[in-house]
Specification:
Layout lengths: L4 E6 L6 E7 L1 H4 L2 H8 L3 E5 L6 E5 L1
Antiparallel strand pairs: 1-2, 3-4
């Protein structure tokens, strides 16, 4: 099974979460995709200790 990431953004207007993106971490952890999901500019950096991506809001 390959790694994947699923990001759900919940609305305070209803009890159900809306699925905003589905894909591998490499597909989702991209600045343009994160901006589309969260509506703010984000940068993606690599964590030196683990080599995993970390997203930061700018």
């Amino acid at each position: 099974m390959r790694p994947s990431i699923c990001i759900a953004k919940h609305s305070s207007r209803n009890a159900c979460g809306k699925l905003n993106a589905r894909g591998t971490p490499a597909q989702i952890m991209q600045p343009a995709e994160l901006q589309r999901i969260y509506g703010i500019h984000m940068e993606v950096h690599t964590q030196h200790a683990t080599g995993k991506p970390v997203a930061l809001a700018c």
